[in-house]
Amino acid sequence: xxxxxxxxxxxxxxxxxxxxxxxxxxxxxxxxxxxxxxxxxxxxxxxxxxxxxxxxxxxxxxxxxxxxxxxxxxxxxxxxxxxxxxxxxxxxxxxxxxxxxxxxxxxxxxxxxxxxxxxxxxxxxxxxxxxxxx
Length: 134
Hints:
The structure is a single chain. The chain is 22% helix and 35% strand. The chain is built from one helix and eight strands; from the N terminus they run H-E-E-E-E-E-E-E-E. It has one helix at residues 2-30; strands at residues 37-43, 46-51, 59-66, 73-78, 85-88, 96-105, 108-109, 116-119. The strands form two sheets. Strands 3, 4, 6, 7 and 8 form a five-stranded antiparallel beta sheet that branches. Strands 1-2-5 form a three-stranded antiparallel beta sheet, with no helix packed on it.
């Protein structure tokens, strides 16, 4: 009789620990820190988006919205958590773009980050040069 009680107590304890562990894992996936965008700046190749690194994530997903459009376009999935910048090379001169992003762990995603807008100004190109003798 004592042995069966011990086995029953052991089985109940094991079930409780398993439940506590699964609740902990689920709450950690749902509680991913939000990414903090730090800057969007013009660069030679497009708009450079940078953010603060988030610990304990698998990577980031970047979204862009073009001025006048109603939806967000998924630009890239960055699968390295150590990367903290991305250059959007598909921008057009004179158009305002707004960026946001999410961090992810497995299939869980964080909340959308703050949004930063920037008008893209293409790098000027030299079309002609004149030598003036004066």
